[in-house]
Amino acid sequence: MTTTAPLPPKAGQLPGGRGRFASLRSGAGFALAAVALFAVAPLALSDFRLGLLAKYLCTAMAAVGICLAWGRGGLLTLGQGVFFGLGGYAMAMHLKIADAGPGGLPDFMQLYGTATELPWWWRPFANPAFALAATVLLPMAVAAILGSFVFRRRVKGAYFAILSQALAAAFAIWLIGQQDTTGGTNGLTDIQGFFGYDLNDPVNQRMVYFVIAAVLLLLIALARQLMHSRYGELLVAVRDSEERVRFLGYDPANVKLVAYVVAAGMAGLAGALFVPAVGIISPALVGIVPSIELVIGAAVGGRASLAGAVLGAIGVAWARTALSEEFPAAWTYFQGLLFIVALAFLPGGLASLAGIARRYRANRGPAGDTA
Q1: Which of 14-28, 211-225, 342-356 is the most confident on average?
Q2: Three-state SS string across the chain, please?
Q3: Are 212 and 38 in contact (CB under 8 A)?
Q4: CA 294 – CA 317 distance, rounded (Å)
Q5: What pLDDT, in 10s, does the model give residues 177-220?
């Protein structure tokens, strides 16, 4: 005789109204985040600090995708710098072409190269619609190709993490070797305009900040919808028992592939918006170390919690800016120690502290009453 386990209820259908309460709490948190980003931060921060916050919010966008792929799906993506870089370079290529004007060459090509016209693979990026689409679709396409090969061969765990990290290293090395067309080690720098707006104008820099903040909130809403949908439940099932999901008739490779591709698209969009916020994209921003930094932020804040992953990414990015100036040699070791401590002693990140405290009080309650 066989028994079939009941399917878990949909989000919003949890017993005792817990689903409705969770939705209200999430809505309140979303509204609070919007007020903080669109009202408090612009009033409280100087233009310089607001520019730094815009940079940190871009890393938080990538952390949203990591929360979906790793926190929900168990895919330790140590190569998100690749997709961040693809989106960033796609945006920067268009902006450099626009800065050069009709028929002109980007400044670094005139300095380093001997070309008299744009390389053939640069020319489509002169079209703003193509460039905008490429910032998201190009990383997603690369992730779809790589994920199809990897997941269908059932590569997972540490092997998947190492493979994704090797991809980040290879991408950075390739960029460095193409100095004539990618700027080499320097990357694409000195970006002056953003779709007709002068980035040297503080007003336009604030506009870029507001765009980044709005996109971040939209990505959080999209990720939450996916995580609390039937697909999100299936993704958790694949993470916890892949063979059982396969026995039930689902293909775990396709389930993981969707999460990986969506996370890649989010990282690509983060890289694209990072370019006008900072004015540069280079191999130093897309290799192994930046990829690990993105994962550290999500791990410290709480990879299973959207709010935790976002706040953790912002906090780690801020700490890197603040502490690396004082301790440039020791900061990398501190980052590694932070990652190890978070995974070993607080797997749920800082976001899990509230739940740990509630369970601790619940366990002590009966004993205290008895005494």
Answers
A1: 211-225
A2: CCCCCCCCCCCCCCHHHHHHHHHHHHHHHHHHHHHHHHHHHHHHCCHHHHHHHHHHHHHHHHHHHHHHHHHHCCCCCCCHHHHHHHHHHHHHHHHHHHHHCCCCCCHHHHHHCCCCCCCCCCHHHHCHHHHHHHHHHHHHHHHHHHHHHHHHCCCCCHHHHHHHHHHHHHHHHHHHHCHHHHCCCCCECCCCEECCEECCCHHHHHHHHHHHHHHHHHHHHHHHHHHCCHHHHHHHHHHHCHHHHHHCCCCHHHHHHHHHHHHHHHHHHHHHHHHHHHCCECHHHCCHHHHHHHHHHHHHHCCCCHHHHHHHHHHHHHHHHHHHHHCCCCHHHHHHHHHHHHHHHCCCCHHHHHHHHHHHHHHHHHHHHHC
A3: no
A4: 9
A5: 888 888 899 999 999 999 989 999 999 999 999 999 999 999 99
Q: pTM of the predicted model, to two decimals?
A: 0.88
| pLDDT given for residue 4 in this prediction | 43
Q: Is the pLDDT of residue 19 over 60?
A: no
Token couple for 282: 């280079």
Residue pair 309/302 in contact (Cβ under 8 Å)? The answer is yes
d(CA 180, CA 280): 17
74: alpha, beta or left? (left if phi > 0; alpha if psi -120 to 50): left
Distances (CA, A) of 346 to 60, 156, 180, 340, 352: 20, 23, 46, 10, 8
Query: Sorting pLDDT into bands at 50, 70 and 90, what band is 365?
Result: low
The C-alpha atoms of residue 107 and residue 333 are separated, in whole angstroms, by 37
Q: Which two tokens stand for residue 255?
A: 């389930």
At 94, list the tokens.
């268009």
